[in-house]
Amino acid sequence: MINMQSRDLLVFSPRGIYCPLADIYIDPWRSVDKALITHGHSDHARKGHGEYVCSPLTLPVLRHRLGTKIRAKALPFGKQMTVNGVRFSLHPAGHIPGSAQVRVEYKGEVWVVTGDYKLHPDPISEPFESVPCHTMITESTFGLPVYQWSDPGIIIQDIHQWWQDCQEKDHLAVIHAYSLGKAQRLIAELDINQGPIFTHKSIEPINEIFRRAGLHLPPTTMIHEAHQYEDLKGGILLAPPSALNRDGLPWAGPISDAMASGWMSFRKGRFRRTADRGFALSDHVDWPGLLTAIRESGAERVLVTHGFSTPFARYLRGIGLDAQAVDTRIQGEPAPDDTPDDDAQITPV
Amino acid sequence: MRQFNELIRQLEQHPDRDGTVRALTTYVKSASDMDTVWAIALLSGKRPKRVVTINQLSAWAIEKTGIPVWLFKESHRQVNDLAETIARILPPPDSGEEIPLAEWMRRMISWRSSAYEEQQENIELAWDQLEADERYLFNKLVSGGFRLRVNTADLIQALWEVTDVPRHILAIRLAGKWDPGTMTMRWLTGPATQEEDRVKPWPFHPVLALSTPWSSLGKPADWWMEDLFEGIPIQLQYQNETLYLWTTDQQMVTHLFPEIEAACKSMPEETILEGMLLVLENDRPGPLHQIQSRLDCQRVTGKIMADKPVCFLVQDCLVWAGENMRDSPFVQRRQQVESFCSLVDTLVIRCAHIEDIGPDWTLAEEHLATARERHAVGMAFKHRHGHRGGGEISDVWWTKKVEPLMMDMVVLYVESGTGRSSGPVYELTFGLWDAGGFVPVTKTGIGLTEEDVDRIKDHAREHTLERFGPVRQVVPNLVYTIIFDGVSVSLRHKSGIILTAPRIYAWKEAMDVAELRPLSDLKKRFTQGF
Predict the structure, then answer these.
(1) What ipTM does the predicted assembly reach?
(2) What pTM, to 2 d.p., does this model score?
(3) Which of A288, A315, A337 has its CB closest to that of B469?
């Protein structure tokens, strides 16, 4: 645990990021009474808290993932919640639909916890909002200068080209993407004129949640045991990374698979044999984005959490910011080989 | 550079042979002739000399981006490759103008003689014009670190598919000395010259495994027997005062065997011999992987020739000094082989040793039973009056392999296969006791039945100790009998040995790992000299 100043608005406690004045935690990793949740990924939204507060779109996601019995309430973007004089508000983080940054203000001092975020726009996530603050607690999943995302439009084109190659080769195209967020972003970007979109059973419920909330997603079909390989011909199947490569594939025909993740930027990532093809499409902020976000926030002090926190904080100190790396139990975007995804099982086709 | 980048991307995925050829044909069809020539040169190992070192490139990239050296190093640790670190650390390019591969190569060659400042200026300008992936290739090329190669046979196959120029002509032209800066596709794919027309491999003598009883061959006295060694079949052709060594897939491998070239200096013009190329170990025929590694060499050094000496075992004569022998019976061709070999004063070219079988098959059976002692993997049977290209039983060289060796081993690691329709579902690493623990001995997935696959799947699910990417280390208590054709020494392997053609024979259900014989036992039983 690093030495925090005693009057700090937010501190890093063994349970998570904590506001002592309001007795509220942000994305805590152990059970607490009251938790503000930035988004529904499992390393941010854990079971067992007394009360959850999150954005309106994250609420049904939490209920789906953590159970309908949790005590949870929604705080719309930009609306304030005041507890013991501390004012909390949520602001779009651009990471996945409903993902939020948390702004915390007390007597004119402003802190922002970014959660996971990205600056590149996508069709379904609310665009990242720059929130002016004094202290910023930022993620650093891709906090090295070698991580610079290409225009997502070009990557989406590449994915369509690959899908077409699969169709020509008579291979089923399988794309590995996380059930919450990445999968829906891809679905929203895919052109259904090219072929039908199939989803793994861990993805479809999230699609439904987002559709009910008014997001536009093209039609998708969830695969089930009765589906034959031939039924999927010419289509593209989205499945979480852990669902398919865990064992020998029970497919009745040839497949080509691809992985869409920021870790696919380098040859090293692409050649781990997790998939035939890697697309460097990430829902996290890249190096130039991190620097832009920090600059635009006007923060004087930056606390760097999950990712390349140590080198990134050191770099920030080098350019004159008061920056420190902080340990958390948040993983950011897991590398493809150690996916903790818990809700995916193999569905034979 | 865009098309070349796409080609490399496809080749880097380690496609199968069809995939490689498909990627190459797509490229050849779409790229300009000048680009194609350069791509062929680069992929067949004709690397241009480096302009600057990779460390120099790193220093310029650090200077250009203004990032601290420690952060560059930190990034490099993550990326694992300097050319790629530089490619990724630079800001996106500012001009989308496409400059073809041949033009980049021309520029790079011209920079070699430039002053240092000019080199830096040109390279930084190039970085601003290339996408990150293209920049990676550029960095590799400009620093002399481009090492991706494809099999010459695949290159030739692709060129043949696109241009229709006979494969052996392409092989001759690509094997010669040529400079990608001056060579043209027009020359590479032009009609064959008179000299070229005379150079070509003939169909190889058919060799088939004998699966029926000996008696199906007829009278034993009509047949000769010969030890079968692990090697590659080669046709040796001397034409236009040049030696050509052809493999069965029409690859020309002359440049890989300078010692054979030297030994054939006194060969009569217009001669074609057929035989087996072997690597010798202590003057005995060595294992197949040795000759394979000679074939994989880029440049043959004196050390390689000394470490892996080769020998051409002459088995047949197709043409002798312009005289066609192909229609003569084997006994006459064999006489020509013997008279040639008796005159050759070198150990690099030797006459294949044949023996009479006698009135019955007893001697052949005895020879087969003791073949392993002579470092042979089986026996070949050749009819005295067999003809090349005939359709009779006597026109085939029949082989019988020795019985495989067997050893019980325990599964140490399980790796999921690719899940594609071809290839094994699992690759299993098998081990044996050594110094109180298990040491990996061999890896194979061949021979698994469906029941085995289910058993291994369950085993991996319940008994995984640790995961390394796609590989699981499992509790060592699943025992299989492994069969293999031979054992040879390897210093690169932890066990100190390699098995030839290992495959899975059967599950040993009742076997306890404590009963497994140790590694030393395997070494003792199947090898000599260590």
Answers:
(1) 0.89
(2) 0.75
(3) A337
